[in-house]
Amino acid sequence: MAIVESRSRSEWQELDRSHYMHPFTDYKDLGEKKSRIIVRADSVYIYDADGKQILDGMSGLWCVNAGYGRDELVEAAAKQLRELPYYNSFFQCAHPPSIELSRLLQEITQPQFNRAFFAGSGSESIDTMIRMVRRYWELMDQPDRQIIIARENAYHGSTIGGTSLGGMKLQRAQGGMLVPGIEHIGQPYWFGSDRSLSPDEFGLQVARLLEQKIEELGADKVAAFVGEPVQGAGGVIVPPETYWPEIQRICDEHGILLVTDEVICGFGRLGEWFGADFYGVRPDLMTFAKGVTSGYLPLGGVMVGDRVSDVLIDKGGEFYHGYTYSGHPASCAVAIENIHIMQRENLVDYVRDDIGPYLQEKWHSLAAHPIVGETRMVGLMGALELVRDKSTLDRFDKDEGIGTKCRDFLVDNGLVMRAVGDTIVVAPPLILTHAQADELVEIAWKCLDLTAQAVS
Ligand code: PXG
Questions:
Q1: Average predicted confidence (pLDDT) for the chain
Q2: Which of 97, 156, 205, 212 is most exposed, with the fewest beta carbons within 10 Å of its own?
Q3: Against a cut of 0.85, is the pTM above it?
Q4: What spacing in Å lies between the alpha carbon of 317 and ligand 1's midpoint?
């Protein structure tokens, strides 16, 4: 009997309340409500225990890029689990899935990337990257280059490394001391600024915060700059076009390593394989997770550019770092098949040339709604800003929790999107059809109406 059939919906809810500590959850609050129990999924839809169909406008948690119900991925996992369910890559061992995946990643990334290090999640990838960056500078005989610069409101995971590197104030405030040697600069959030500059001028100004920070700290103390090409969990902050080229210039001029955190942007989300490709930057390292397996099994990793890997290999001796599940065979087998699917079905081109532009146009039609202040979308990753007054772009009072109200209307009406404050974000599976894009935007408009009615 399938697990789902062994109990009723209300039994699941009761047991959930009693035993399961959810991630990023107010436990008391959840105890007073009930969880929505999701039992199955297919294509771009999830289904709850009452059989309600919901369009998954978030690809799970920004990860189910190839969509649900992919038998090829299930078969790849099953086949590998039967053949070799586990073995490690420590102590001079390796297995074909992890080797083949490294090769495949080399094929789809920029030419400086010839090597991959594997982890079990995005957070572990970030921790790996932090240790690798600092190790690189030790080996370069510049051990004082320890500081890593990231951005406010960035999300880089929940391990201590991820929390420290991230710029989420509330998250950082919990749980005591963080990793030292991490600094934050402002984010390229034009709508969140006073909007006195054009987006392009603003992009340059915010990029130059990096230069100011480097000058303040001394370039000989700075190891790396890390940024999500488009900040995801922070509210889909699409940077102005001037931003990333200026960041690249500044990193180059000061010899600082450039790291793009591709956990969300990687694997086709922006209509290129990686966010760095979309913005035309050449990172020294890229962290990835989520879309690499379309979320079917956990896997993360770091693409290590030659600049760093050459030094680690030539001078480093043993790198004392790794996880039991680094390069897990079944996860790697799923990742290989997932990338093959994306190649076979031209999913990256489909996002860039077809469904991306199609959904973007529809999404921008929501800008006409009376409580929408801005819409933005690149590839299949977008956001809209809820405002009280369209002419002044004044926001609602924070206490009103308008974003959450809107999100609840959306889910009740059959569409999952996330609320980041009063910013509603969307990132559907890359296989979205035109009809499903129409459905998504229709439900969104209806729920904006319901939200507007609820506040007036
Ligand atoms: N980097 C980025 C850019 C991420 O988005 C991580 C690292 C950490 O990955 P793991 O696999 O350790 O979770 C992430 C994860 C949200 C949300 O609510 C976003 C993430 C995770 C959970 C929730 O938007 N991103």
A1: 97
A2: 212
A3: yes
A4: 32
